[in-house]
Structures are given as structure tokens and as C-alpha cells.
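Protocol step 4 of 6: structure prediction from sequence.
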Amino acid sequence: MRSHIPVPADLRARYSRTAEGRAWLAALPGHLEAGLERWGLTADLPPGAEPWNGHGGVVLPVLRDGAPAVLKVAFPHPEAVVESRALALWNGHGAVRLLEADQDSCSMLLERLDAGRWLQDAPLDRARDVWGSVVRQLSIDAADGPAWEEFEHAAAKAERWSDELPAEWEHLGRPFPRWLLEAALEVCQTRGAVGRRAGRDVLVHADLHFMNILPLPGTGAVPDAGSYRAIDPQPVIGEAEFGVAPVLWNRIAELPRSSPELALLERCNDFSNAAGLDPETARQWSLTREVQNALWSAAKPGHDGDLARSLWVASTLAGRTLEGLPAAHELPEPGGAALR
């Protein structure tokens, strides 16, 4: 008997815009039912409640033999396909523990974390210490073998961006000054596969922002730093500093109004040091990732807020904050595309 699990409304709105998305939405109830049957699960939702969801998938609280877990079904995209591979390698150290996986449907059975206490709500000094602890746990040395072959290398991304960023910049009508593009290209040259001289390759969580870090259940009012786990990794191989950028482009409104530019650079230093990383390498990677984000936003109608935020962060990291942008505290959070 089908349990008629509802698809969250914002997920329906997001993926109903394309034929591919509509096809996935139509298949999603079947994927959820198949996961329940395949792994002997029972939905653990109050009557009428919707499952949890992120930007790219649905997360259903379930019970297996009475133990809490979650069933995640992701929209099939490159990061989702390799997510279970990364979680298996981390094996619960710094990241949510993978219990089962089905690659064909992008379905995973995961340990259940405390979804009501993400790091987004923690004071920034507390968030810094937890984030640093999680990064240290996640930074396992890259190795050879089939388990590692599907991950893209950050240095290879940089080499690809060396060609793609200038072409996209021209195609979009040069949406920001050339000097900022050149600053990103310089990083691509020095940190790419050709220009790179040294560096430790690890498995990197490339989307480690505050909402992607949750505590284990039952850890008390203030969980210790080691009780937090990362979700939704978007994994790559490369320098761990590649993963610093998301903590710089989130929670910008909390930077002090008196000197937000200096405070952003200080945040880069503080979070890097908390994780045992090199702040200068983190600054370089973050600058380039935000230039790439800026070009993505420039190509999407209605993303003027995302574009402004990326340009503010990238140019500030480059040492020359662009004029004509909103003040830091007026910039929207990622996903809040419109300017106020």
C-alpha cells in the first residue's frame, strides 16, 4: 500500500520549470516508495507533514528496525552521483554516516542528524571552531583506486576555468571590470594543474556552509565541536582551502558595518586558521570561486542580488571592493536573488 508521501512545495516549484525537472518530480514518489521497500523502512512523518528538503533533493525521516534514519533522494546531477562515494570514504568521520545507497535513483539511507540545530544559528566564533573541527576530520588524504576515480580535481577545475571564464565574461557583455577577471585567472594559473608547485590533496567538501553542518541527536544544548557532521558535500579532490569560500559568501550581513571589507578578510584568516589551513591559499581559491559564481548569476535572469553579493566578496578578497554595489549588510543571502 502506497504511503502517499507529499513532495515539498518549494521543491515542486523549483523543478517544475524544466522538462527534466518535471520528469524527476513525477518519478520521485516512486523512488521514495522503492527506497522504503528496498531497505525495510517506515516513514516517520506526522500525518499531513511534508518531508524535509534542500535545494536539490528530498529527505524523508524514517525508521529501520525502530532506529531513526533518513531516506534522501536527490535530483540526478554530477555532485549527487558522487555524493555517496564521498560519504562512504568519510565513513561518519566529520560527515553524516552513509548506511545504504542506490546509485540508479540517487537514493541514500543516512543516519539522522538534528535538523533543528544547524550551525547557521550559532554565534560566529562558535561556528568557526566547529567548522574548523569538521574540516580537519573531512581532510582525508586522496588515494588511488576505483573509490577515488569519479571525483573532479580542483586543479583541473582551475585549468578548465582558465578557458571558460574569459569566454563567458565576453559572452555576457563583460558584466564586471576586466581586472577582477584577471585576478581570478591568475589564481587559475598558479593553483591549476600546470602552475601548481606543491600541495596536499584531500577529499574536499566544496559546499561547507553553515546550514550544511548539523549536530548528532541528543548531544545537549551546546554540542561539542566533535558532535557535528556535514551533509551535502559536492565533493572534489584538491587543496582543503578550496572549501573555505562558502563561509565567506554566507552570513555577510553579520559583518560589522564599520569595516565589513576588513572583517571579511579577517573571517577568511580566522576560519582558515581554525581548520589548520593557509589563509592566503583560501583567499585565492575563494576569489576565483566567487568570480565563477558571479558569471553564473549574470547568466540567470532575476539573480541580480546573487551577482552583487558575488562581486562584493570577490572584489573585496582581491583588495579592491567594486564601487556601485550595495552595502554589505544589504546583500542577500545565497538563494535570496533579489536586492532589497
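Step 5 (inspection) to follow. The longest strand covers residues 57-64.
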